[in-house]
Amino acid sequence: MRIDILTLFPDMCEAFLSESIIGRARAAGLVDIRCTNIRDYAGNKHNRVDDYPYGGGTGMVMQPGPIYDCYQAVRGDRDCHLIYLTPQGKTLTQERVKELAQMDDLVLLCGHYEGVDERVIEEIVDEELSIGDYVLTGGELPALVLADSISRMLPGVLANEDAFTEESHYGHLLEYPQYTRPPEWRDREVPEVLLSGDHGRVDRWRLEQAVERTLERRPDLLEAAEEAGELTTEEQDILRDRKS
Ligand code: SAM
């Protein structure tokens, strides 16, 4: 998969994308992520890419021309899906991440200042996504959130697939609590079952914990799964036992 990030701050993105799991995945060729500076397409000698908003008001607006030219250059003759990161978009979910991870060519557009001229959104944007109901100074962090969440679902990026299929939000449950060494820390002990070596008991305990946690913290996820008929028999049993 190739992901292109169109940004005014490519170094900011590269700093994140060169480290840890994503950095290794890129180095191993498991995902091709490139950052392109929109300013390189300013088309004027001052490299200016923003201007005052028509109608007045505070802040600056990114001009449509440089974004359009940058996108055309990056896209070439590929068929890309262009996502503009904006607090006005649909909120990103793990479900959408799974779908986007099936695509071959994604382009992520980062806004800055007051955002981007509406006409370029109408002209080239396929989808608008938000990472939550709050406002950041720019689209770089949202684009990195998206690139990270997609990349970790690509084959080979994580050591094994359980690493994400068992995680919160992959299905309808939050993940069970995790523990590591030492077995006792500040008078707090690791639950005995996890040290038992009995994989059947461990699996059952983890499922019970996941159901319990989801009920406590995000009952809406369980209600939606129940309505959609997505609860497994084991999950239904745990819920029934808990109620009785
Ligand atoms: N004036 C815009 C509005 O009220 O909708 C907000 C602009 S924001 C200060 C600048 C840029 O940050 C946006 O163009 C967008 O790319 C990015 N951004 C800020 N918050 C975001 C969020 N929650 N999700 C995705 N992108 C966001």
Mind explaining what this structure looks like?
With 244 residues, the protein is an alpha/beta fold. Helix content is 41%, strand content 17%. The protein contains eleven helices and nine strands. It has helices at 10-17, 20-27, 64-75, 94-100, 118-124, 140-151, 162-165, 192-195, 199-217, 219-227, 233-243, and strands spanning 2-7, 32-37, 50-51, 61-62, 81-91, 105-110, 127-130, 184-185, 188-189. A five-stranded parallel beta sheet has the order 2-1-6-5-7, with helices on both faces. A two-stranded antiparallel sheet has the order 3-4. α4 links the parallel β5 and β6. α3 runs parallel beside α5. The protein starts with a strand and ends with a helix.
